[in-house]
Structures are given as C-alpha cells and as structure tokens.
Predict the 3D structure of the following.
Amino acid sequence: MKQFAALIQQLELTNKTNAKIEAMVQYFTTAPDKDKLWLISLFTGKRPKRPVKTTLMKEWCLEITNLPEWLFLESYSAVGDLGETLSLLLPPPTQQSNKTLSEVMQDLKVLKNFSDEEKKTYMLKAWDSFETHQRFLINKLIGGSFRVGVSKKLLVNALSKYSGVESNQLMHSIIGNWTVDDITFDDLIEGKHINYDNSKPYPFCLAYALDKPANELGNVQNWQIEYKWDGIRGQLIKRDNAVFIWSRGEELVTKQFPELVEAVQDLPNSFVLDGEILAMKDANVLQFNDLQKRLNRKNVSKALMAEVPVNFRIYDILEWNGTDIRSEALVIRQKHINAILISENQSAISQSYGLKVNSWEDVTALREEARSQNSEGLMLKLKQSPYHTGRIKGDWWKWKVDPLSIDAVLIYAQKGSGRRSAYYTDYTFAVRDGDKLVTVAKAYSGLTNEEIKEVSKFVTKNATEKFGPVRTVKPELVFEIAFEGIALSNRHKSGVALRFPRIARWRKDKLVSEIDDMDSVKLLIAANL
C-alpha cells in the first residue's frame, strides 16, 4: 500500500505526461503482479462497490477526535474532500501496516458483508496503521470515490513502454472482460483473453488547419469538399464476423453503440471504416450535447437508444476483405463504400458525400453556413490522396467556422493543480438573466501567466463565500468567452451548453452592466439552426 500511495503522490505532483508515464513504469517494474493488476483495474474503473457508508466514517472520526461537528464541517468546507478531511483530522497512527494494495483490496471485497460494528473495528485499525496519504487513499477506496487523473490512454502508454506490447493491443486487452481473480498480469498484458488480430485498428489520417486562402489550393475540382462533423471520430472494424469500434483516442467503445454493431454484423464483407459517430434523428445531425448522453455507459438501454439514435458517417475505407487499401487514391477507396450502404442499414450508417461546388467561392459560402448543419466547418481532401498515417501537410485540410463568443462575468474560482496549485485558474462565468446572474460556462485556458496572477489577487481580496475549494467572488471581472457551438440543455442551470468554451480575452474595457444576457445567448442558438 505504501508503494501505491507513493505512486499516487507522484502522479498528483506533476502535470507532465512523460513524468506520469515514468512513474507508472517504475511501479510496474517493482510492484507485485497482483498489485499491478489492481492498479489497472482501479485506473480503468473496475472498482468494488462501496463497502462502508461515508456517514459512518464521519461518525467514527468524530468519536475518535472528540471534535464538535461544526468544526468538522468547517474543516470539510476548507479541504473540499471527505476522504482527505478524515485523513487529516485523525490522530497519527500508533502501528505500522505492511499490507500490499492487493491485500487491502481483498479486505474491501469482503468488508461489505460485515456488520456495522465489524466494519468499525476494521476501519479504526486501518486508520491506526497507515500514514496520512495511505489513509487518504483507503478512505477514497472504501468510500467509493477513488478517482485518479490518469486516462486509459496514458495508462496504456505506460504499460506499452514497460512491456513493449503495442498500445492498441493493450487497450483492447484491459478493456476486455477480465477480473483480478481470473487472470495473471502477464496473461493480461499478452492479451491471452482476446483476439487482437480481429480488432486491430489503423493509425488515423489527420488534417492540418487551413493556413492560406483556399483558392491557392489550385483547381477546386481536384478536391473533395465535405462537412466537418462534430462527433466522435472512430474506426468501425468487421473481421471474421466480429465487430469492433475504436475511438480516435484509442478507446474501445464497441459496447456503447450496439446499433452500429447490429447494422454491420451480418454483412458478407470484412472492412475497416474511418468515420464519425454522430447523434442523428430523422436524417438530421443532432448537437454533440445530445451525443454525450450516450458516452461512457456500461449498459445502453433501448429507451436511450430511441431517444438518441447514433449514426456512423463514413469518411473513408482503409481495408476491404482483408486487403489494406490505404495506398489507393481517395476516389478509388470510396467506391467500396457502396457495397456496405445497403438500404436496411441506412438508419445507422451513412456516407459523408462530397459537396457539389464549381468554384472556391462556392466552398467559402458552404463554410459560412456550415454551423446550420450542426457542422464545425469543412474538410478539403485531395481526391488522389492516399490515407496517410498521422498528419501530412498538403493533402487534407480542415477549415473550421469562426468561433462564437459572448461577454460574461467571473463569479466562481478554484485553484488549479500541479504547478498551478498556488493560483486560481479554474473559472466559472455568468451572464444576466433579468436582475440575477446565471452560470453559463466554465473555462480553464486563455489567460497569460501574468493575467492568472492578477485574477488570483483579485479572487483573494474579493472572495465572498467558500464551498470547499471553490470561492465566490464579486462579479466585477468581464471576459469574452469563445466556443465552437451552443445548444439547449436540461442539465445546465442556464438551459444552454457551450461546446469547448475558453477565454478569448479579458475585457477590461467593459462593465458588468454590459455583459450578455440569456436572451442574447439563446439568440445564438436560433441564428445557427
């Protein structure tokens, strides 16, 4: 457990990707195999159910420390995390435990069947046997709120560096069906429980942002012009009657989209398609906000599938009946797509067709109205281009629409993490709604280091309330917030959701009375329908 706690501390103290990878590689090099399995399990969300109610943990802590409840609550408010508050308030341990991570996790698996009194006995002994940070982790694991700032992709990159196994194979392996009790670490890394050859994706071909006037690209007829869709870029793979869906982020997301699997399961051909997973109903592309309802779900109900149907919009085909065709010209590759687009699959699969244009002026006009199609802009693809690995400048370009923007006022701030932990860098902004302010966006980027320091000084001097690590501040600082799209949303207090909000600039020239109101914000939705 000491080794696991030390790793978590290292991961928390840096925001550098390579440093995080090195820390995990060191752990995989020295930790027992069972501990390595548990780390992978915890980092990928395979956690045991919470064995102890947090209300009981709080009650036991008050009993041990003899603190009045108001002081506990004040401490909790200042720290902002129950597990950390408990670990800080409890007295120093009088014993030392050498239990490994796997031994602790095995304890937690059986702890859920204990009586409350037996759970208390276990917890008190654990608190008296571990140092503060180890105790903190145990509290998080027992309370069911363990989270770590490591993505599956980062974990896979560390495992790949440690083992030499290809990262996509490792991603398929750790996402597959396994438990700590039914597999060894070596078998998991080697993928003994999967058939990777069937699911293996290709590297994605990526585009550069257009950095010159479009008419400098030459004859417009040499280019395929498509809408740039705002969904999840992915590869839909069918080999040996097995279907797999990979996201561009190297996540295996097959189970999240069962209708796509069903659409191609019985087709006679095998293939690898590159495309975009979109929320789509009645032939209309929905907002990304709708698609979010479908993401990261272990089980997708029929009701949700009916509420938010998805469509795989095909951009390209990379493999046909076992043959890699990426070296062929785009126009040649796409001829194979017609064999896949049979009528009964039209609701789940479609093609991103080239748009009809006669001039670059036509292309410019299409870009200007792209947002009305719920598109981010245009893709410009050379018709004779092969399917490259990664970004190769010149063959594929993305020409996005200009961002939307509003003026909003800062009302909440929170300190960052790592190197930014001394400054308030996480901001919440509001616009006017009648005579009150309503939150409309959160943003974490866009200010210079000097501006961050200036805002932090303002927050320190002008904080009016605190909710854990969050500070309410006087609504005086106005900022221009840029974003890619906007949609109505029942999940947000304001009733709208902004896509990729970020700070465009600090509007020191504007007063709070000049910020946007909800009516003007919602007009942006109507203007882009």
Notes: The chain has three domains: 2-143, 205-400, 404-527. The two ends are 54 Å apart (CA to CA). The chain has 20 helices and 22 strands.
